[in-house]
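Entry 0007
Protein: C-type cytochrome
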Amino acid sequence: MSSYRLRSFSHWLLALFLTFTAVGQVAAQDAATVSKEGVTPGATAAAAPAAAAGSAAGATDAGAVAAGDALFKGNCAQCHAVNDVVVGPALAGIDKRRPLPWIIKWVKNSSKVVASGDEYAVKLFNQYQKQQMPSFALSDAEITSIVAYVKSEEGKGGKTPTAQGQPTADSGQTAAAGDDAAGSGKYINVVLIVLIVVLIVLVVTLVIIANIMKDVLRGRKDLDGRDVEILDQKTDWMGVLKSGWFKGVVGTLFVLVVLYESIQGIMAVGLSQGYQPAQPIAFSHKLHAGEHQINCAYCHTSVYKSKSANIPSANICMNCHSQIKTTSPEIKKIYRAIQRQQPIQWVRIHNLPDLAYFNHSQHTQVGGIECQTCHGPIQNMDVVYQYSALTMGWCINCHRETPLNTKGNGYYDNLVKLHNEANAGAPFTVSSNGGTECSKCHY
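Output (structure tokens):
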């Protein structure tokens, strides 16, 4: 009987350890729903099938809301909040102010909607100091899921927008869109710490109880030989370390770890997402493109008409800085380069392999893609870093998700007709036009 009690304590210890380990893993998985790089366009399309079929008002499916939550935090939260004004307007009630098709067009290419003369779009554009919203390569289902998420969050803190879509917040409001996400992360960290502390206390308590019971049992005279043997037994750690099964387990784990790290290393060859080198001159895109709203094409003059988006020459800088901040230490570096007739040695950040062909004008001029689609929130970067993966899979996924604007272009009429007959009305995307063929990028 005594030996049974001792064995039960070891079982309790093992059960508690496994339970708390499982709880910790679940909490850690919940905390890691949104990564730094955001949500890749198209990555959550499968999570929101119900959202694509219904209107925004009816899209309350839990899967659609969850997908919208991840997409919102990865793509929208830098400029928008649901119930508060941040950089752009509060989004609460957007499904009542504008129909869903209009919202989809706006998210995919707001500049085009403004250029079309849409009264609401022009008014919104002027109201927010003509700050251009970047285009997003999101599918209709993904945008619908974002609207579903916004609808589910309406009225949860912050100021509620009025019927005209204008929030009642005062002009000094500076609410951060990421507070909810940060709060959730802190909460989960606290829960994990509490669970670890409780586990340690329980383990120590059980060890103490086990030792006390051993001492009590040693004082009993009715124990048989088997019980005494169990009480006095000691673990032969050297025997365990020298055993064949232990060496096999350690060897297997070692091989698996080396194999995993090798595969990860091989897969990461040529990838430099997050690369953020120091530049010879501290140029801030946040100051120039963000605060002063200088158009990208003013400095990168060939972005709409050439294969490459050129690095601006020093004379473009001097268009302004011959009169502005002429004594700044960083501006003096530009003067020094001009005097020495030497180019500024900027460090290249975005670099595709030579085997891949990419044309900026094809994407910006013909496709109407905004700079932020690939380069991320460049207007918020003091020091530029590589925002997107720029892998072949990343590009192909974008081609599969990005619809082509074929209206008014007779070249596409027969292609669209054949496509619709074969694909039951599925969107005519870049991929539908041969955008995933090998020879498009490799020839």
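Curator remark: Residues 1-6, 26-60, 159-179 have pLDDT under 50 and may be disordered. Residues 403 and 428 are 6 Å apart (CA to CA).
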